[in-house]
């Protein structure tokens, strides 16, 4: 699964052919179809595995002993470092998939994004009203996607961390404002 995930992460759904997958996985096309049903089936399993790993990072950032501002700031900074520390697969696989021209592949990424948004909103409810929580989560998610894109453009980890810290300061200000 890791091999397929790296291919999809690096090149996007459309940028990876069945031939690319079968060559990298060292299997023939009938074996790929028998195991996953389709290229989309393999993509879905790969992106869901990636999402599970990312969810573990999010849950680590949202530890109970941190304030909401510290947690979301930590999430942004950790993402900035992670997105820029893997030269072969920079950025976020889910954010990349959101740009897919394939409706089904993009739909999977949208579903995963909405799940993450709901998790963050629920986390913020003790600290902010539902409307304010939604606004903050939209801001955080927009910044995460921007960090991902900039990592793919080759921005340095230092550049991304600076941007993440600015966004974290804005989140802190939003949480403190009634």
From TrEMBL:
One of its GO terms (molecular function) is DNA binding. The keyword Transcription regulation applies. Residues 4-45 form the HTH tetR-type domain. InterPro entries: Homeodomain-like_sf (IPR009057), HTH_TetR (IPR001647), Tet_transcr_reg_TetR-rel_C_sf (IPR036271). Keywords: DNA-binding, Transcription, Transcription regulation. Gene3D superfamilies: Homeodomain-like, Tetracycline Repressor, domain 2. Pfam families: TetR_N. This is HTH-type transcriptional repressor BdcR. It comes from Croceicoccus mobilis. The lineage of its organism: Bacteria, Pseudomonadati, Pseudomonadota, Alphaproteobacteria, Sphingomonadales. The gene is bdcR.
